[in-house]
Amino acid sequence: MEIREVFAQNLRAARQAKGMSQEELAHRADIDRTYISSLERSVYNASIDVVERLAMALGTEAAELLKRSQETSTNQVD
Amino acid sequence: MEIREVFAQNLRAARQAKGMSQEELAHRADIDRTYISSLERSVYNASIDVVERLAMALGTEAAELLKRSQETSTNQVD
Predict the structure, then answer these.
(1) B23 min Cα distance to partner chain A (Å)
(2) Is residue B66 situated within a structural domain?
(3) What ipTM is given for this predicted complex?
(4) Is B77 among the domain residues?
């Protein structure tokens, strides 16, 4: 699975785990909501600064948002 | 410590642990050597695609290259 897809899935899961809307995450991270929506659909190739700002707004680490889970890494084998 | 600095330190450490020159890493990852040199000096704001390509060329994961170690996270407190 491509890193953009891994990031998209992790970002959405972390946001939803916090019960946060895209609107609220956008406000906290000072990033446009439509850009967050695009990131969650793997549309853009985010920079590490953006990954960091989103991670901080979600109370997690940038590395966590790029981490392949069992599910995302096994897909890579297909 | 800023994420660019964390990435710069992790990238250099992973490359040197493999005994790889910037030249060889550039060749393997199909990225310009001078860009790698700049990344190792925190000059640029790398994209996650670039982080992924460098991680694969180094036989590691993108998340590992953004991971804060004890040393890089304690600096954050200063």
Answers:
(1) 23
(2) no
(3) 0.89
(4) no
